[in-house]
Structures are given as C-alpha cells and as structure tokens.
Amino acid sequence: MEARKHAESDWLETRILIPKWNVVLSGLANTLVLVLASLAVWWIFFSNAGIFKLYTPLLGFSLVIWTLLIILWQTQLFDFWPLSRGFLSNSNPLIKGALLTTITIGLYLALIFGLLFWIIGQFGISYFNWHSLVQYGEFGQDVLSTRETTSWAFLSLSVPFFLISIFVMLGIGKDLFAPLAQPRMGLANFLLISTLSIPIFVLFFHPHIGSMFYPAQVYTAVPPWWQSLAMTNSAEYSLGILFCTVLGIFYAIHLWDGYPWTLVTRQPWRILFLVVGSIFLGLVIFYFQLSIMEHIWDEAYIGGQNENNFGWRYSHTVTMGNFIVVPAIILNFFFAPAFSGMPFWARGIIKTVLAIAAGLIFAWAYYQWGPVLLGVVPGVSHPSENAAAFLLLIINLLLIQDHFMDGWPGYRLSTK
Amino acid sequence: MKRRDFLKGVAATSAGVAVAAGVGSLPKQAFAKKKGEKEDFGEIKSLKVKCISETSWFDNATLGADIKAAGGINSNQYDVAYNTDNLGGYAALVEVEALDGKKTKYLLDTGWSNDWIDYVFEKDGIDSMLKTKEIDTLIISHDHIDHYFGLESTLKHQPDIRIFFPGTSMPKSFELLKGADFSATPGCPKNATPHTGELVVTKTDTLYKLQDGAAIVFFDAPATLQVRGENVMYFKIKDKGYVTVTGCCHPGILTLINHGRRNFKDGEKMYGCYGGLHISPFENWDPKMDDIITGLKQYKMEKIACNHCTGWIWAEKAANAGLPIVMGTDSNLSYKKVGTLARAKTSNVYIGNGDSVTF
Fold first, then answer.
1. Taking CB atoms and an 8 Å cutoff, what residues of chain A touch B65?
2. pLDDT under 70 in chain B at which residues?
3. pLDDT tens-digit profile of A343-390?
C-alpha cells in the first residue's frame, strides 16, 4: 500500500494518509463523495431553487472565496490551533470535519459579517454594508443592487488577501517569525498579510468601487487609473492578473510538487523568486487565455457586452483557470500515490495533461448541463452568472475532505 | 457571419500576440464579411418611433424587492410574485416611410400589465390600428415580463397578426401564445385569445427582411430572470445610415453597432438608435457603464433616443459626456401613472411615454 508522506512538523506535513482500498478505488470513492457533497451543498445553500438562495450571484461567490481563504489560514497559518495533536490524531474524521467546518463558518461570520459588515460597514466604509448604502444612497441604492455592490466589495477585498496569503504561506512560512509557537506564529503572519493586502486593495479595487455610484465618489476614490491599459474601468483587470498568479502557484503545488518554487530556499531570494516568478507565470496564464478567447470570440471592444467585454474576458481567465485547478487538486489529494513511483518529470507532465483535459471536459459539462444539474442560467457569458462560484465551493469541500477529514472515506490516517 | 466558426481548433498563440490583441480600441474588422458578401437589405426614406410606454414598472425598489424575495435576478420570471400595482410595460410604434413614400406600421412589444397597456393603447389609438389591421406585424423583442406578458392586450384586437418571436423564448412563453393562464402567480400573464396568425420563430445567423430597408436580426444574448435572446430591428435610412430599434438591447449597443459594421453594406455608418439599452435598469452603476460611453463616442452617432432599461443615470452621464442624447418632453407626466424617476423631476434625457423621435 502506497502512501502520501510529508517530512516536516506541521500537522498536514506530519500526516500519512493511506488508501483504504487500492489507490484508484479510494480516489474514486472520494471523488464520488465530493460530487454528491458539492451538489447537495449547492442546492441547499446556493441555488435559486434551493432553501437559502445565496447565489445572488455575488453574495454566494464572495462567501465561498472567503471561506476558502479561512480554511487555508486555519490549516497553513495557524496549524489547526487550538485543536491538539491528540484530538487531530484520534478523532473520527466526520466529527473532526464537522468541528473544523463549524469553526470556519464561525470565523467567516465573525470577520465578514461581524467586523466588516456590522462594524466597518456601519461606522466606517458604507460600501461594506448594503443597509448603509440604502440608508445614505438615492437612485439605484435599493437592496437588490446594494447587496451585490457590498458582495463585490467583499469579493474584491478577498483577492489581495488571497494572493498575499499564498505568498506568505509558500514564500515565507516560518522564516520570519521562527521562534514563535501557535497562535503567535499564525497571528504574526496574519498581521503581515493584512498589512500588505489592504494597500493592494486600496490601489487596485477601491477606485472601482468608488466609481460604482452616481456621481462617482471622486473625493474618496480616484477614478480607475488603469483604464487606458486595460481598455475598461473595471477592476476585473487586476482581479484577473492577481488571481491567475494564485492559480499558477496552485498548479505548481498540485501538479509539479511545488516546483519551481522549491528551487530557491534561502531568504530573501525565496520570497522574491516566488513573487516575481509567480506574477510572471500569472501573466502568461492570463494573456495566453485572452489570446484563445480572441480566436473564439473575435476581438473585444470598449463597452462591448458579455463575451465582447474586456472585463468579462479578464474574469473568465480566472473561471477557466479554476476549471483546471479542481482536477489538479483532485489528482493530488485523491490519486497521488498512483503517480509516486514515476520520475518527477513524467509525473508532472502526465498530471498536467490530465488536469487540463479534465478541466476542459468539466467546463464543457458545466455549461452544457449546469442549468439542469445546478439550476444555473444557460450560457458561457452571462451578466449574472459565474462558474467560479461553484468551482470555489468544490475547492472548499476538497480542502475540508482532505485537510479536515484526512481524505475520508477513501483514506485513513496514520502518523509517523 | 458566425464568428465562432473561426475557431477550428484552439490555436496556441503566444502571450505576446495576446498582449497586442488586448490593446485595440475600434474592432479591427479582421473577421468581417468581405465587401461583396455584406448584406444589402435596401433603404427607407425615414423612420418615426412613437413611445407608447417605456415605464415597465413604476418603482425600482418595489420590483427589486419582489425579485430579491424570489431568490434574485437568476430566478425564473414565471416564479416571481410581483406587486401588481407596480406593473406597466414596454411598447413602441415603429412607422417606416419607404422610398416611394408608402408608410408601414410595426408594433414592437406588447407590455406587461393588461390594465396599463389597454390604457396606453387606447391613448395612442393602437387598439383601433390593430382592429383595422393598420399595424403590419408584432415584433416581440424578447419574452421578458415587461415586453411580453401583456400579449392579450394585442391579440384581443388582432389575433391573426403576424408575430416575430425569439426562438430561445421560455416554454411557458410559447404556451402563452396558444392561450394559457399563469395568473395564479401575482403579475404573471394570462391570454384568453390564442394567436392564429403567422408565427416567425427567429434564430441566429438569419436576416429577416421586413421590407426594403428594414430587417430583424436575432441575437442569442443572455438576460436576467432566465430569459435569453432578443430580436433587434435594423433600418437603413437613405443618406443617413443605420438605425437600431430595440426593446432592451440585451446584446449591448456596441454589439449591435459592430454587427452592422461587420455584416451590412456601408455598415460603418451608424446614424442612431431608439429604445432600451439595458445598461442600468435599476439605476445602479458599475465602471463598465463608463466604458459604454467611451465606446459609443468612437462611432459618432447622431441621435441616441433611449429610455426604459437604459438607466436614467447612464443617459444623463452620456449627455454630459457629449453623446447626442435626444431629449424627451414632459408628456409622460399627464399619464394616469408616473414612475418614481419622473416624480423626482429628473432631466428629460429619456424619450418618455407619448414622445416621438424621427430619424
């Protein structure tokens, strides 16, 4: 029986996950559970035909991106604190998954609806609270619109936090605050992430949000300064590039065993190499996809709608990138032992080809059957539909299944 | 021209090419039809559009609350319970003067609330025109609530009128044509007069010529409330250029302009437009709406007559930015119901109820 092993001392690196059956059967069992869980969670919480109808669409979209980020913080920054190693080693995966997911949701509610919505949105920045926008706004500031404006602000804020979090987790780790134990280590890195992310939000997204009102709020936010470069006033330009950078890092982690980011180990070169290299890779992913879209849909034009819109195309690079990230993570989490005997280069090539092929098939299937299976509206380019919301939900569930539940049901936990 | 046909396999173009491609402004027309292949559907002498009603609902916040309660803008339009006091509808009378002086009338859309549409039809004599078959054809731009749910108001006067109908319409919308009753849900339609005339179900890649100089093009564009597709009227006016007349313009005005540039003879000359432009129907704003002003300024149109789902704030911003917005009058204030915007005494950047524009 082959196993996934890690060599360092964080909980995820200490774990050894052993397939309960043969690798393919265990992987398929996990994939089946993932599919069923994704459909169930979507229909209960997100779908317009469901109970909670959170996919408005931006409210649900902002929710899944923030919970994903919080799961990464819980596991990578805080190393599952405050749960003890004994609890993590000995608990039933279902109980552990339920408890950690409850903590995730609790943190989400505290951070986004406690701090951002109720406190900052009421007493500081009105666009973080849709009721504040209704209260102070005039035309157009009714709750159907303001809920989307506020959700867009949540979503925008998550992007720099996501990027900087990944930079810190992979490029710095414990290097900067080495002697600290948890939760000090996590808190120190979290404060570093916040310190760097907030100015990036202000530079790349706040001008967009300031322009979401009539008249534009030019005394508190400059008009979008990237217009002549991006051919749009929309911050989807920044969103596309920054998130494609995140995707490039994810591809490296899940398809290429972290290569090339593992090449440089000494600081400060490690973090510099990661930042410069991943932004370069992100730009390649971003512009390569734009060139494909140009072949499919012809050139975009200023003020064009749907697939002819520059902003929509920038966002769509992230959506398509996520279609490939999902199978990449599934291959790494559920089927990794099947590739472990191969040479590094062969493993990387085969996993990459499989992930791209599966991602494209997944995209085709989503747009073909999504309206029936998920209740989403038909069409690739739609003003109120973005497949990335469902994809990020799946990634949430993948992390819950692997990080919180030790690969249940196909894997069982062992420790060194 | 089918633009997607140009993808015969995903080309692995370099990132450098993509960078170059991303910084164009006017479309390059690289994929346009060649000169000899472009559609030439003739010319007309003039075009007059009368706004029968552009107030599809009278208060944005009320409709917004109805849609929010149903689950948001992706809900099925037949599942939303609407506040019936808030409902109006969209309809326009399109009068074409041919080169020989002969005039032909078309009705674009048939509104929402039967009570409101019966009222405005009577006010403008549309009911009489239907009874005497003075109106040649009903063009349903799309099957959205406010453009189609008032079907009975037209068919009860002329059940055999020829109808152009989007092929992507929802199954219940097709049922309504045959006579159906969905009125158990507040604000949803009923039709006691089944359609008996010619039904032209439109699809993409076909030009439907109404007469010399007038045609319909169907665009398979997405819209809210699970609706797809829209019929757009194109006219070519002698010595002036092309004019589009739209219900909501869900494909986007720049898309319509570029369709003309790519596919019609002399298509680079876009003279004007009438109708909803679907930019800010709920008067909210997004920086992409500034892009539409920037984009439109490149085409040097001479008359932009907009209303309905355009968004008053967009029209006002566009006028301030120097676009040739045709101003309306206060005639809408004399109607039995007046919308929130008009009551707020906003500027007349809309062609309002009772106004006309001539191209």
1. 142-144
2. 1-36, 343, 345
3. 999 999 999 999 999 999 999 999 999 999 998 888 898 878 899 999
3-state helix, strand, coil in chain B (%, to 5): 30, 25, 45
Give A147→chain B minimum CA distance, Å.
Answer: 10
Give the tens place of pLDDT for each residue, B218-246.
999 999 999 999 999 999 999 999 999 99
pLDDT of residue B3: 37
Q: Enumerate residue ranges in chain A where pLDDT < 70.
A: 1-8, 415-416
**B207 and B233 in contact (C-beta within 8 Å)?**
no
**A165-179 exposure pattern, b = at least 16 Cβ within 10 A, e = fewer:** bbbbbbbbbeeebee
**Closest residue, chain A, to B344 (C-alpha):** A139
Contact B18 A288 (CB under 8 A): yes
Is residue A309 within 8 Å of residue A233, measured between CB atoms?
no
- Burial per residue of B217-240, b for 16 or more beta-carbon CB atoms within 10 angstroms, e otherwise: bbbbbbbbbbbbbbbbbbbbbeeb
Minimal CA separation from B329 to chain A, in Å: 21
Any chain A CB within 8 A of the CB of B2?
no
**DSSP letters spanning A267-321:** TTHHHHHHHHHHHHHHHHHHHHHHHHHHHHH----TT--GGG-HHHHHHHHHHHH
* B347 in contact with chain A, both atoms CB, cutoff 8 A: no
Find the residue in B nearest to A146 (Cα): B284
Mutation test of the interface with chain A: which of B10, B59, B74, B317, choosing the one with the most A Cβ atoms within 10 A?
B74
B221 close contact with A: CB closer than 8 A? yes
Domains recognised in chain B with CATH numbers: 43-358 (3.60.15.10)
Residue identified by tokens 């109106």 is B135
Question: What integer pLDDT is reported at residue B21 of this predicted model?
Answer: 36
Question: Which residues in chain A are closer than 8 Å to B280, comparing Cβ atoms?
Answer: 140
- The predicted structure's pLDDT at residue A250: 97
Residue B283 sits at the chain A interface (C-beta within 8 Å): yes
**Cβ pairs A/B, distance under 8 A:** 207
Q: Is B33 exposed, middle or buried (0-12, 13-18, 19+ CB in 10 A)?
A: middle
pLDDT score recorded for residue A49:
83
Torsion (CA) A267, A273, A275, A276 in degrees, nearest 10: 140
CB B81 within 8 A of CB B66: yes
What's the pTM value of the predicted model, to 2 decimals?
Answer: 0.90
